[in-house]
Amino acid sequence: MSKKIEAVIFDWAGTTVDYGCFAPVQAFVEIFKHFGIEPTMEEVRKPMGMLKRDHIRTMLAMERIQNLWTEKYGKAPGEEEVDKLYALFQEKLMSILHKFAQPKPYVLETIEELRSRGIKIGSTTGYTDSMMEIVVPKAKEVGYEPDAWFSPDAVGNMGRPYPFMVFKNMEVLKVGNVQQVIKVGDTVSDILEGKHAGVISVGVVEGSSEMGLTQEEYESLSSEEKHAKSDKVKKIFLDAGADFVIQDMRGLVTLIDLLGE
User: Fold this and answer.
1) pLDDT at 1
2) Fold of 7-21+101-259
3) Does the active-site annotation cover 257?
4) pLDDT per residue over 78-126, tens digit each?
5) Are the C-beta atoms of residues 111 and 147 closer than 8 Å to each other?
6) In angstroms, rounded to a whole number, what is the distance separating the alpha carbons of residues 220 and 225?
7) 3-state percent breakdown (helix, strand, coil) of the chain, nearest 5
8) Average pLDDT for 137-145
9) Which of 52, 104, 168, 195 is catalytic?
10) By Cβ atoms counted within 10 A, which residue in 12, 55, 67, 128 is the most buried?
């Protein structure tokens, strides 16, 4: 069945800007180190895409981290610790965010093509409004400006994997049918957000948080290594329920053409 796509709703870090989603990763690592706990990359990236306070709560509940914390401080971490870590996270992230608003490869060209077809551009994020007040103008300076963006602040902190930020976008973009909306993201939380909203849920492989490589690291891989890493990320997205997976943003236009046939 052909679908006339009316809107595409993108995630931000790791999807349209910040190749590899490194701004929050750096901040998460630093705040846990501040409290004497060294998280692994897997632990940091697993909850990626969630509201940042929920991300910290999820990390603190991980068995290894919880055990290290209890050993160090004599009690399991609770909401008081979440508050302390989050306050420090906000401070760290706000100080570096301006450096991580560069659009990823093919994003600007893809947006231009979508707009030429009359497709509206929305966006959701795990960042807060105050964080976005840094990212949005910086991205605009270098040519990326969606028609709408919503953070968990706009939906009573019911961020991903809840669907409400998607619905907010649909409301302001005046799109009435979830079947005519694509959600594109780079984390499992993004895929779930799309699935819970009932829209077409798409994962993007290159530059994703799930892959976790800088552009230089990815480009220096052999073609066999690229394929192996890409296949692993694709499987993560499909296992999470993604309807489609694209290698990079160029694949989105191809997908829309296929859906319209």
Assistant:
1) 43
2) Rossmann fold (3.40.50)
3) no
4) 999 999 999 999 999 999 999 999 999 999 999 999 999 999 999 999 9
5) no
6) 10
7) 55, 10, 35
8) 97
9) 52
10) 12
- pLDDT-derived band of residue 261, with 50, 70 and 90 as boundaries? confident
Whole-prediction pTM = 0.91
Q: Pick one of 3.40.50.150, 1.10.150.240, 1.20.1290.10, 3.50.50.60 as the CATH number of 23-98.
A: 1.10.150.240
Assigned token pair, 40: 């692994």
Asked if 181 contacts 7 with a C-beta cutoff of 8 angstroms, the reply is yes
Residue 257, SS3 per DSSP: helix
Of the candidates 192, 99, 95, the residue with the CA atom closest to the CA atom of residue 139: 99
Average pLDDT rounded to a whole number, residues 205-233 = 97
CA 8 – CA 188 distance, rounded (Å)? 18
pLDDT tens, position by position, 25-83: 999 999 999 999 999 999 999 999 888 999 999 999 999 999 999 999 999 999 999 99
Q: Which of 174, 191, 86, 62 is nearest to 182 (CA)?
A: 191
* Spacing of C-alpha 219 from chain mean position: 21
Rounded to the nearest integer, the mean pLDDT of the chain is: 96
Q: What is the arrangement of strands in the sheet containing 181-185, beginning at the earlier edge strand? A: 120-123, 7-10, 181-185, 200-204, 244-246
* Domain boundary assignment for the chain: 7-21+101-259, 23-98
Phi, psi of 41 (to 5 degrees): -60, -40
Q: At a CB cut-off of 8 Å and minimum separation 6, what does 42 contact? A: none
What's the pLDDT at 260?
87
Residue 20 near residue 26 (C-beta atoms within 8 A)? no
Total residues belonging to the chain: 261
The catalytic position among 11, 54, 186, 190 is 11
The answer to whether the CB of 204 falls within 8 A of the CB of 184 is: yes
